[in-house]
Amino acid sequence: MSKVNKVVLAYSGGLDTSAIIPWLKENYDCEVIAFVADVGQGEEELVGIEEKALASGASACYIADLKEEMVKDYIYPSLKTGAVYEGKYLLGTSMARPIIAKAQVECALEVGADALCHGCTGKGNDQVRFESAYAALAPQLTVIAPWREWDLRSREALLDYLAERKIPTTATLEKIYSRDANAWHISTEGGVLENTWNQSNELCWVWTKDPEDAPNTPEEVSVLIEKGEIVAVDGKAMSPYEALVYLNKKGAEHGVGRIDIVENRLVGIKSRGCYETPGGTIMMEALRAVEQLVLDKESFEFRESIGLKASHLIYDGRWFTPLCRSLLAAADELAQDVNGEVVLKLYKGQVTAVQKRSPNSLYSEEFATFGEDEVYDHSHAGGFIRLYSLASRIRALNEQKK
Amino acid sequence: MSKVNKVVLAYSGGLDTSAIIPWLKENYDCEVIAFVADVGQGEEELVGIEEKALASGASACYIADLKEEMVKDYIYPSLKTGAVYEGKYLLGTSMARPIIAKAQVECALEVGADALCHGCTGKGNDQVRFESAYAALAPQLTVIAPWREWDLRSREALLDYLAERKIPTTATLEKIYSRDANAWHISTEGGVLENTWNQSNELCWVWTKDPEDAPNTPEEVSVLIEKGEIVAVDGKAMSPYEALVYLNKKGAEHGVGRIDIVENRLVGIKSRGCYETPGGTIMMEALRAVEQLVLDKESFEFRESIGLKASHLIYDGRWFTPLCRSLLAAADELAQDVNGEVVLKLYKGQVTAVQKRSPNSLYSEEFATFGEDEVYDHSHAGGFIRLYSLASRIRALNEQKK
Amino acid sequence: MSKVNKVVLAYSGGLDTSAIIPWLKENYDCEVIAFVADVGQGEEELVGIEEKALASGASACYIADLKEEMVKDYIYPSLKTGAVYEGKYLLGTSMARPIIAKAQVECALEVGADALCHGCTGKGNDQVRFESAYAALAPQLTVIAPWREWDLRSREALLDYLAERKIPTTATLEKIYSRDANAWHISTEGGVLENTWNQSNELCWVWTKDPEDAPNTPEEVSVLIEKGEIVAVDGKAMSPYEALVYLNKKGAEHGVGRIDIVENRLVGIKSRGCYETPGGTIMMEALRAVEQLVLDKESFEFRESIGLKASHLIYDGRWFTPLCRSLLAAADELAQDVNGEVVLKLYKGQVTAVQKRSPNSLYSEEFATFGEDEVYDHSHAGGFIRLYSLASRIRALNEQKK
Amino acid sequence: MSKVNKVVLAYSGGLDTSAIIPWLKENYDCEVIAFVADVGQGEEELVGIEEKALASGASACYIADLKEEMVKDYIYPSLKTGAVYEGKYLLGTSMARPIIAKAQVECALEVGADALCHGCTGKGNDQVRFESAYAALAPQLTVIAPWREWDLRSREALLDYLAERKIPTTATLEKIYSRDANAWHISTEGGVLENTWNQSNELCWVWTKDPEDAPNTPEEVSVLIEKGEIVAVDGKAMSPYEALVYLNKKGAEHGVGRIDIVENRLVGIKSRGCYETPGGTIMMEALRAVEQLVLDKESFEFRESIGLKASHLIYDGRWFTPLCRSLLAAADELAQDVNGEVVLKLYKGQVTAVQKRSPNSLYSEEFATFGEDEVYDHSHAGGFIRLYSLASRIRALNEQKK
User: Fold this and answer.
1) Selection from C83, C87, C82 nearest residue C261 by Cα
2) Contact indicator for A301, B83 with CB cutoff of 8 Å
3) CB contact under 8 A, A195 and B365
4) What is the pLDDT of residues C117-153, one digit of tens each?
5) Is C178 in the active site?
6) Long-range contact pairs involving B230-233 (C-beta distance under 8 Å, separation at least 24)
7) Could you write out the DSSP letters of every residue in B159-183?
8) Which residues in chain B are contacts of A371 at CB distance < 8 A?
9) Whole-prediction pTM value?
10) Is C313 a residue whose pLDDT tops 70?
11) Which chains would you list as touching A if contact means 3+ CB atom pairs under 8 Å?
12) Which chain A residues have any C-beta within 8 angstroms of a chain D C-beta?
């Protein structure tokens, strides 16, 4: 066990990180600083969190408001790549990890800590994401991952551990589902979901209405996009975080953004989760709609391949790498033309782009319709096809000669 | 103008190909054979089609039933790749073209024709798809594309052309929307859709109920999959075509499978269409759901990249190429493990996989949950992360030394 | 035939473009401006070129020195992507076309021309490259491609055409090989090369010594690289063009940079050529050598995939597209770490990087060797492997249960 | 420490695995079976190996001749993908590991062993390759990796360990370079190579002549290829292994197949090695030469992308995975046309394909040359280019309107 003096812990106020504070002090004989990242997980998780941290034995508690920065510098760039993990997952937890880790590292450097600690379990992705970020940003700091070290193996053990030390907690023994939330999404795992043949139930969904309970009347929202970034919604200029909050409310009301997925974790196992990303799902649909107007065929395909690659990089916690910077640069370049306006219809769990326009649109009514025009001459197609299929023709002629 | 004696025309019975028959005879002084492909476009388009062809001047009319073969040999292999064009389009028209062209070529070879003819316009994809298939399958045959040759430039001109020749037609002047259908999908273009800022209206949708008019109660269907192919639905073994027809009915009832897209055509312009693929959308969702269970992370990513590549190949009419065969072989290999059962919920335009299981599932309740197990030891993760992020660490240590 | 008043012709002084001047005047009744791009094709091709152009009937002749700009803004960015077409070809002709076209367009806009003309044949790539650049940069200008219009079908016909008009030319009837040169490379096609079973002979190689005639003693050059660009050679700071000229001389002396390739042209046919890129081959090897030191595994693979994609884009004349900009941005981002020094050995046709170092090197003698170190703990590997192969293990256990 | 009864060790006869036998017996109290794979590493390494194993304490020693199978079932399929790791490395060690592991597992199952053991170090790739194969083929067996367990940390310690136990060895203290050989290649690491700024010296190269010492006269070999596999050399039918041995001799004589590379290991560090693959380099060049004739543009690009992907999979020990099978299937499909004959010139370290022909060649003298022909009409190019550049044109027209 390394000798450390001062540890900065990514603290959530939940049962796990509450137990980690005394555990660190006892096992490492060190000072513990609680670091809380506000990434939009919700007021209820932040109220009284400083008191809670101090009561658990932290010597100080710092809270960093990262909400606006997260949407602007992590989510918007990711959206430009079109990253969707394994065809479904909008990377809600993944995108929050690097910014939390970065702010935690900055806190650690500021307070002169020599170690970093997180409360992620040993079977999950988040440990990899946190520690990959630490490695890239502060390789000199020691990393402590209690879940891979201690022998506390159940919720009950944690509660006992706190009770023995008379540390107050509001956590209860009964907690079937494990959740993670930030401004972009909330995830639910465990319980009934552990058998893939079980259907999810109402406990698996937190933010969004069940589509069956959503309004019977559709609602429209309009989104204005500049260089691949949403700059206004329903006619009102909004910051990235404001736009997300606004669209979250709209989407949730209409049951938009639910997915129930079995995914490949980075550590080699599969897990199942129910994820809700109401506003994000609307944003994604809006961006893709403008792309339909402005990206040419080869650019669209490349944007899709970037998105596929980026989805793995982001999921895998590779944010602070040259490769990720390279992909984001490629996507940002393509996004220079992604300007326009989209009207989206929300209804019973679905979001559909029903109107779209762009000053950069390559679509032209004149070109697309039946008749002749100045740009497109029907006769061009003959030559095009001939050369386009020439290798096939030569190959077939070859075969016939045999 | 090449000299030809006998032409086999891909004949639909519509206005265009009806005019093409006399036009060919007059301009090429040749015999015209009408070839009709039954790809599930619907009874109403086939009733009396032979009489119609003969009345237009064809010397013979052959009808080939390609429905089962199309689903089995073209659609199912494509589904294994996961091909979706530009993120939305299930390639309905694209997948039908190669099989029609192939059967048309076979007909031409059988009747000793020296030319092939199609009625596709000069601005579309289908001319490329037909002629690319011709080039690969019968490069020795002359290809005639009347739309790129004649000076008939409007519906009115075509009607006049037929009237002058006293050829009967049921076509009317007023036809706002252009449609194409086969067992897999129906597409609608033109009219109000020509301005991307217009919303689609009820005329743009043919097969599927408007989600708002769909039943208020969800319905479930169950699908059994073997090696990436659907072999039974709702407990009943079905052939590929039967399964599609069955799921089309279910999907259409619930408004499933509508998309409204602006896409890049192969010929360099963009066009907008409303496409309905009710059964196909269910099939696609079912396959992807089993893949979630059985494909490991790298295989899933590769399957997605194959799908992206295949979507362009298929859209672009490259079916009969070595590259397409190579992609299909790769996808088929991955599909060997895609076995399982999925329950899907249909509701108001959405299809959602709500239950899934597979004998090849890599998901394991034991591994995924919190506790220790025999396969996964929490402590492994520490070493994994260390090596996983080692290059980042070395890079960062390097930077610090500067 | 469109009506044009003033045409700017990409003029080389060769037989083809000499005939094009009078042909344009006669057939289009227009003024012809000769535009000459100096891309390092060699003094002998530029001497007296203005007089020649005027003697052929041009009203003016402009010569633009593009040498430095070509290497700096076209070749260096391409090198960062690692683009090599079909595994061999360093894109010598391809990279010169966009800059020539761009300068030609600028000339046309300046002199108020309404048309652009080039002398590329109808079976080659260059027509596509020129006209794709024109389309992107000046779509309003008419494009004239005489080789696709006139009925002059042989060298003899061209000579007769000039003789009839008493236009002097130094061209002779006997010209077996067709060549194209710029600072980066020289290509040779035709003659004995037309049969792929023939070996090339001494007429197929112009710049470089036959390796068998090259010095029996190897020579070393050292190259300094900053952010993926060569900034000094053999200890002397050099501009991009200077570095290329210097390395061309060294490489040519040692027979470096010859390839004899059958390649896929963009227009669907294959052609064979002998290409010499002496300096470029050295540059490429030098860059790749530094990349070995600084790029991590995933970045290296992505750089290779960018290079593959870029090779086609550049070959295909897609330089002035959003997609190309996107790829170049991605490559440039990765090149930020490509700093270092390489010593290369030239010998009998080969160039080999024999020494390399970089301030950004991820290679560390300490880490790479046998023993323990602070960064790498042997025991980490056990956990790494376990998780790395976990999906395989689960899959195999699964299979055994069946 | 797991309890095991009988271990099958991948035994090489070298110092490391000689020490492992007694170490296993002492530390695991188990029977040890030595398994020797003959993959063409050379007679001198196999002579007396059984005696050696028994003298070290093994209860039995099995030798499996895998030479022919390795070339046929591992190397030839890999060659079809075109896999070259990080642009240079022909995967010599990587391709041998899966077949050795597979044969070792088969041996273990046959003798009823409950554990597998290898002598790979904890910083290398081979431990991952061996154990990934074990996980896929026999997940139920325990894996022992002594280098990650014991505290013997130097050559000296190993010699002492053997001496204490009176186990004879021919190993000496002084061994600067570490080597690995099989029929395909030999690698050399360590010593002077540990500093990337050092040039390699004569001790770094074992099989091949220094190009400077190679014959001054070039030599030609001819290779016959069927479906991507070499079936005859210099006019004589040869099995895969025979062809490799024959070409190794030719190549080595001319100094062909040397690379000196810094590569990214799978475990996150970089290492430098000198690799010699004389015959393999000739084989690779021969295959690529036929591909130039037979693969169309898109197929060639896809083959290259498969090769890139396969190079990582193979390097990373992913042979026995669905993804690897999928890639090999894709490559094999493309290889169906790779038939032909190539003459290659060997000279002073270089191998160059100087003549090539194929019954499937898409190259045609008629099409490639200047004049008109039946297949290619110059005028087709005009239409082709127009549509090919249409999106660029529309985009530019758009920009001008702003």
Assistant:
1) C87
2) no
3) yes
4) 999 999 999 999 999 999 999 999 999 999 999 999 8
5) yes
6) B230/B76, B230/B283, B230/B286, B230/B287
7) HHHHHHTT------S---EEEEE-S
8) 153-154
9) 0.97
10) yes
11) B, C, D
12) 296-297, 359-362, 364, 367, 375-377, 379-384, 386-388, 390-395, 397-398, 402
The verdict on a CB contact (< 8 Å) between C296 and B393 is: no
Minimal C-alpha gap between A121 and chain D (Å):
23
Neighbours of B379 (CB within 10 A): 16
| Cβ burial B114-129 (10 Å sphere, 16+ → b, else e) | bbbbbbbbbbbbbbbb
Domains of chain C from N-terminus onward: 6-175 (3.40.50.620), 179-295+338-357 (3.90.1260.10)
Out of B148, B372, B390, whose CB is closest to A153?
Answer: B372
Note whether A381 contacts D387, CB cutoff 8 Å. yes
Quick one: average pLDDT of D11-34?
96
Residue type, C283: M
Query: CB–CB of A295 and C322 under 8 A?
Result: yes
Q: Cβ neighbours of residue D93 under 8 Å, at least 6 residues apart?
A: D125, D126, D180, D182, D185, D187
Which residues of chain A make contact with D297, given a CB cutoff of 8 A?
A: 391
- Opening angle at CA A375, ends A371 and A378, nearest 5: 50
- Residue B210 and residue B261: Cα distance in Å, rounded? 17
Residue in chain C nearest A124 by alpha carbon: C387
- Residue D16 among the catalytic residues: yes
Residues of D in contact with B298 (CB under 8 A): 313, 318, 321, 323
- Report the pLDDT value the prediction gives residue D184, as an integer from 0 to 100: 98
- Please check whether residue A34 is in contact with residue A10, taking contact to mean a CB–CB distance below 8 angstroms: no
User: To the nearest whole angstrom, how far is the Cα of C191 from the nearest Cα of chain D?
Assistant: 10
Give CA–CA dist D119/D10, Å, rounded. 7
pLDDT in tens, chain A (402 residues): 679 999 999 999 999 999 999 999 999 999 999 999 999 999 999 999 999 999 999 999 999 999 999 999 999 999 999 999 999 999 999 999 999 999 999 999 999 999 999 999 999 999 999 999 999 999 999 999 999 999 998 889 999 999 999 998 888 888 889 999 999 999 999 999 999 999 999 999 999 999 999 999 999 999 999 999 999 999 999 999 999 999 999 999 999 999 999 999 999 999 999 999 999 999 999 999 999 999 999 999 999 999 999 999 999 999 999 999 999 999 999 999 999 999 999 999 999 999 999 999 999 877 655 555 566 777 788 889 989 999 999 999 988 887
Question: Mind telling me how many Å the CA of D304 is from chain B's nearest CA?
Answer: 12
* CA–CA distance, C10 with B402 (Å, rounded to integer): 50
CB contact under 8 A, D360 and A390: no
Q: Do C381 and D128 touch (CB under 8 A)?
A: yes
State the DSSP code for D147. Answer: G
Task: Please tell me the distance from the alpha carbon of residue C24 to that of residue C146, in angstroms, as a whole number.
Answer: 8
Between the alpha carbon of residue B399 and those of residues A137, A185, D389, the distances in Å are 10, 35, 45
Helix axis angle, C390-401 to D126-137, nearest 10°: 20
Q: Where in A112-257 does DSSP place strands (E)?
A: 115-117, 142-144, 177-181, 186-190, 219-226, 229-233, 236-237
- Angle between helix axes C126-137 and D390-401 (nearest 10 degrees) is 20
pLDDT given for residue A367 in this prediction: 66
Determine the straight-line distance between the first and last CA of chain B, rounded to whole angstroms: 74
Pick the residue from chain B with its C-alpha nearest to D321: B299
pLDDT at B256 over 60: yes
d(CA D381, CA A379): 12
The Cα B32–Cα B11 span in angstroms is 10
List helix spans (H) across D112-178.
126-137, 155-164
Token pair 């012809």 is at which residue? C32
ipTM for the predicted complex? 0.96
Sign of the Cα torsion C330, D317, D139, D16 reads: negative
